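Onboarding guide, step 5: your first structure request.
Type a short instruction followed by the sequence, for example:

Predict the 3D structure of this protein.
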Amino acid sequence: MRLRLQKFIAQSGICSRRAAESLIRDGKVLLNDIKIAQIGDSIDPNIETVRIDGQLLRPKEKQYFVFNKPTKVLSSKKDPVGLTCLYDLLLPSMRHLFYAGRLDFMSEGLLILTNDGHFSNRLSHPRFGIQKYYHVWVKGISSVKNFLQTIVNEGVFDDGEMLRACSAEKISSTKGTDLLQIVLLEGILIL
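The system replies with structure tokens like these:
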């Protein structure tokens, strides 16, 4: 399978695709020990070799981790106001990974950390139809039945984005608080 050269370089963990393009433009990438690479080149990583400044590149093994994000942690690399972020909790050796999924600051739940951009995109992008299940505790809703019908049939606005659940049901009730299961294809539902 042929890959664009800059994609192969990024997969090897050396740098981003954009930085790889700069290395190619600067003449620092050598293909098969004979040809100076150019933008637009592609390779078969099973047959051909790539060197940057003499260093032989090998694609990194794909990595997949599950992470239980606690409450009061931002699903982000950094926060300008200093809130605790997901990457503050990771080992330095895992900070190159990116997360598939997103949860708001007060939510806890599963995120997948990976260096596999294709896999992450398939999980996250709505066109692939991957359902995300949320268990949400709500309190003070006068008619849970009407609320569930509304989020499925009409949706709710959050930050200018219309979010509509694929399905929603009440699972249980305890002391005036209801546990709901909400299934989404895209976005997040913040209650």
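Each response can be followed by summary notes, for example: The first strand starts at residue 3 and ends at 4.
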